[in-house]
Structure formats: C-alpha cells, structure tokens
Design a protein that fits this description.
Shape: globular
EC number: 2.7.4.25
Number of strands: 8
Enzyme class: transferase
Strand order of the largest sheet: 2-6-1-7-8
Bound molecules: adenosine-5'-triphosphate, the ligand Nc1ccn([C@H]2C[C@H](O)[C@@H](COP(=O)(O)O)O2)c(=O)n1
Number of helices: 9
Structural class: alpha/beta
Strand content: 15-25%
InterPro entries: Cytidylate_kin (IPR003136), Cytidylate_kinase_dom (IPR011994), P-loop_NTPase (IPR027417)
Distance between the termini: 10 Å
CATH class: Alpha Beta
Organism: Streptomyces marincola
GO molecular function: ATP binding; CMP kinase activity; dCMP kinase activity
C-alpha cells in the first residue's frame, strides 16, 4: 500500500448500506468512490432499451461489448453514463431492478465490467472505495481493507421502504421479498457470486445507525494505514 493510497472493498447483500457507507467513507478520507451495481444496472438498462431478451444469456453476451459505460468517482457527485447519456435515474427503475440479476450473471458481462472496474480503481492515485458483491473476492482481491456488510431482511426492507416512502405493510413485505429474491439470485450464480472474502471484516448493521457504520469503517481503514507506516 502506497503511503497516501488505500483501496477499500465493501460488499454485501442489497440494502445493507454499501452505497451510503462507501460515499460517506470516501468523502471523509478524500478517496474516490465506485458504485459497481450502477454499472450492472447501466448494462441492464441498455439491454432493455435495445430490445435484448435479458433472460437469454447468449443474446446478452453477444452484444454486451456495445454500450460505453462510464462512471464518475467523486463521492459527492458520482455519475453514470451510457454512450455519453446520464442514466442515473432510469437505472433505478423497477424494470431494471427486476432484470439486473439475470444480466449480471452472464460471464461475458462480468468479464467486461470487471475489467472496467479494475481500470477505474487503478486510475485513482489517492485510493478508492469500491462497493458491490464480488469486489473483495474477485475484482480487487488485493484490496487493503475488505468489509462485508450485513443486516436482517426486516431492517433492509424497512430502510428501502423508507427511502421509497412505502408505508403499507403489504408493500413493505413485497420489498422484503424482492430483496431476498435478488440476494438468492446474486449469491447462487456460478460466476463470481455475492460472497464474503475470507479476509473481510463482517459488520452487521441491523442495530447500527449509518453514522456508526461509517465510523467503524473509517476506524478500520485508519488502523490499516497506521500498520503500514
Ligand atoms: N445503518 C443504517 N441505518 C439506517 N438506514 C441505513 C443504514 N445504512 C443505510 N441506510 C439506508 O438504507 C437505504 C439503503 O442503503 P444503500 O442504498 O446504501 O444500500 P446498498 O447496500 O447500497 O443497497 P443496494 O445494494 O440495493 O444498492 C438507504 O435509504 C440508506 O439511507
Ligand atoms: N459487484 C457487483 C455489483 C452488483 N452486481 C449486480 C447484482 C445486484 O443485484 C445488481 C444491482 O446492484 P445494486 O445497485 O443493488 O448494488 O448488480 C453484481 O453482480 N456485482
């Protein structure tokens, strides 16, 4: 690890707080920030916009080198574009959320996006926080600090429902089901599934505030930097 540079990998299931935590940690420590889920969502958005059958892995694999996906790494204003167009809104649609696990399971998609992620991380001289599902295991196995965030499905559904301003019990239950279904798909695919790296620190955020999680991760990064000096 270079004196002033640190690479932090934050993985975990949906809604555990990876993006919020990573952005806040990167801002506190003046590091770059990369939301790798946004890249898989951008690929999925492009497939849907171009009429590709997202449940046909061969069809997805045949065209996955076509969209030009670019990510801006400022944690205070991260960006995601496809062929130069801002897709930060459309990639959060329910259609994209429902299709993203199928598209991200295609090995050719993962190979392309993994290469992009490694290139972005290498271009951040001061260091970066990269969050996703396979960062500690596959994308950046030599990361200086690896964190695996977890939280109960109930806590995650409550957080996501609050974000979406969903209040009805049936809708909260449907949100919980959708989260669990996506986790199952993401952790059972054969290529680079959602998994905790053996050397990652697991942080259960169920009973923690976002500020407490951020403090915990910042402390782990600072301890790691001190050990290197
Ligand atoms: N520790 C926490 N306590 C309460 N709310 C939290 C906590 N961490 C995150 N949140 C909230 O939970 C929601 C989901 O967080 P976030 O988007 O960061 O999760 P994520 O793991 O990146 O999700 P996904 O993988 O689906 O993108 C957000 O509204 C966020 O503000
Ligand atoms: N490193 C990653 C990041 C994300 N994915 C896939 C699986 C997720 O369901 C989807 C969307 O991610 P989110 O925006 O919810 O963080 O993208 C992946 O396979 N690998």
């Amino acid at each position: 690890m270079a004196e002033s540079s640190v690479v932090v990998a934050i993985d975990g299931p949906s809604g555990t707080g990876k993006s919020s935590t990573s952005k806040a940690v990167a801002t506190r420590l003046s590091l770059g920030f990369l939301d790798t889920g946004a890249q898989y969502r951008a690929m999925t958005w492009w497939m849907l916009a171009n009429g590709v059958d997202v449940n046909d892995p061969a069809a997805v694999a045949a065209v996955c080198d076509k969209p030009l996906i670019a990510s801006g790494t400022d944690p205070k204003a991260p960006t995601i574009t496809v062929d130069g167009a801002d897709v930060s809104g459309p990639i959060r649609s329910s259609e994209v959320t429902a299709a993203v696990s199928a598209v991200s399971a295609v090995p050719e998609v993962r190979a392309r996006i993994t290469a992009l992620q490694r290139a972005i991380a290498a271009e951040e001289p001061g260091g970066i926080v990269v969050e996703g599902r396979d960062i500690g295991t596959t994308v950046l196995p030599a990361a200086d600090v690896k964190i695996f965030l977890t939280a109960s499905p109930e806590a995650r559904a409550a957080r996501r429902s609050a974000e979406l301003r969903v209040k009805a019990a049936a809708e909260v239950a449907a949100t919980r089901e959708a989260l669990v279904k996506r986790d199952t798909a993401d952790s059972t695919r054969s290529t680079s599934p959602l998994a905790k790296a053996d050397d990652a620190v697991e942080v259960d955020t169920t009973e923690l505030t976002l500020a407490q999680v951020v403090e915990c991760v910042v402390t782990l990064v600072e301890e790691r930097k001190r050990r290197e000096r």
